Amino acid sequence: MVAMQINLHQVTADYQAGPIRSPEILKSISTTVKSGSFTAVAGKTGSGKSSLLKLMNGLLVPVKGRVSIGEIMITSENAKQSVKEARQKVGMVFQFPESQLFAETVEKDIMFGPMNFGVPEAEAKQIALEVIKRVGLDASLLSKSPFSLSGGQKRYVAMAGILAMSPDILILDEPGAGLDPKGKKEVMDLLHAWHKERGLTTLLVTHDMDDVALYADEVIVMDGGRIVFQDNPERLFADMAAIHQWGLDLPQARKLQIRIEQEANVTLSQICLTLAQLADALIEAGLA
Ligand SMILES: Nc1ncnc2c1ncn2[C@@H]1O[C@H](COP(=O)(O)OP(=O)(O)OP(=O)(O)O)[C@@H](O)[C@H]1O
Ligand SMILES: [Mg+2]
């Protein structure tokens, strides 16, 4: 496993369209994302979640401060070179990643990333075969046009293309957007399995607090372009006042726990994030 800590030091950033600069979007952000962690990023719409992730592969460059990704440091002065280096380490799955497909065949699409970073053609072909199987698609799809695939297949091909690059860091911006619950769970389970298998450092933007409960070992909450919370999910979901203030929801199991506690007039011994934890806590309290 590669050590890939991410560190932001007093990072300020905005968007620039020609001569026009947006107001400050990220306001002096400092944080460390631990190597190997699965960190969820939550917060209201417009709070700066996507912008935070864009800093990590150079889609957004700091105006002030610095972003470190392992040994690579991105600042406003060195952005051109450092962003290129960062892109080799950071794989990004956006909302609707299928919109990034472009090549004539699925195989060429998947091979493009590795070859762009110097992997020989024969080896890239081999990688394409491995990753298409890893995402659960049939190898016969490799010779098809990406545009002839179904929506779900396209999304898996896009994910295979990211996997083919062997990133050390995975940046996921609502990767399940627009899928039905079953499809979304399959995508999330696959991404979580890679995270574990490859010892990646993963950041996931999500509006779904059950994703936070199920997958994350750490949560960052953004509000108005600042990080207002960073700790484990149990601590976050214990604090109802904060949850309301930051416009968040609760995981299903935690909601149910609060209802049961009110109706039975008890307080369970732990903050329950999954139904399994809730069942255990109810048994322990003699309520089930
Ligand atoms: N390309 C852009 N140009 C100018 N302003 C932008 C651009 N992209 C985002 N912004 C602004 O930056 C702020 C943060 O946006 P960002 O996309 O990071 O929010 P978010 O937390 O990801 O929201 P959502 O949950 O809706 O995806 C918003 O005020 C938004 O209007
Ligand atoms: Mg966003």
UniProtKB/TrEMBL annotation:
Q: How does it sit in the membrane?
A: Peripheral membrane protein
Coarse class of the primary localization is: membrane
PROSITE patterns with a match to the protein in the record: ABC_TRANSPORTER_2 (PS50893)
Where is each ABC transporter domain found?
6-249
Task: Keyword check for Nucleotide-binding, yes or no.
Answer: yes
Q: Which domain of life is it from?
A: Bacteria
Q: Which InterPro entries match?
A: AAA+_ATPase, ABC_transporter-like_ATP-bd, ABC_transpr_CbiO/EcfA_su, ECF_ABC_transporter_ATP-bd, EcfA2, P-loop_NTPase
Q: Which GO terms describe its molecular function?
A: ATP binding; ATP hydrolysis activity; ATPase-coupled transmembrane transporter activity; cobalt ion transmembrane transporter activity
Q: What does the UniProt entry say about where the protein is found?
A: Cell membrane
Tell whether Cytoplasm is among the UniProt keywords. no
What is one Pfam family matched by this protein?
ABC_tran
Which EC class is this protein assigned? translocase
The positions making up the signal sequence are none
Reported EC number(s) for this entry are 7.-.-.-
What cellular component GO annotations does this protein have? ATP-binding cassette (ABC) transporter complex
Keywords linked to the UniProt accession: ATP-binding, Cell membrane, Membrane, Nucleotide-binding, Translocase, Transport
- Whom does it interact with, and what assembly results? Forms a stable energy-coupling factor (ECF) transporter complex composed of 2 membrane-embedded substrate-binding proteins (S component), 2 ATP-binding proteins (A component) and 2 transmembrane proteins (T component).
What does this chain do? ATP-binding (A) component of a common energy-coupling factor (ECF) ABC-transporter complex.
PANTHER family, per this entry?
A: ENERGY-COUPLING FACTOR TRANSPORTER ATP-BINDING PROTEIN ECFA2, HEAVY METAL TRANSPORTER
Please state which protein family the record places this protein in.
Belongs to the ABC transporter superfamily. Energy-coupling factor EcfA family.
Write down what this protein is called.
Energy-coupling factor transporter ATP-binding protein EcfA2
Q: Which organism is it from?
A: Oceanobacillus sojae
What is this organism's lineage? Answer: Bacteria, Bacillati, Bacillota, Bacilli, Bacillales
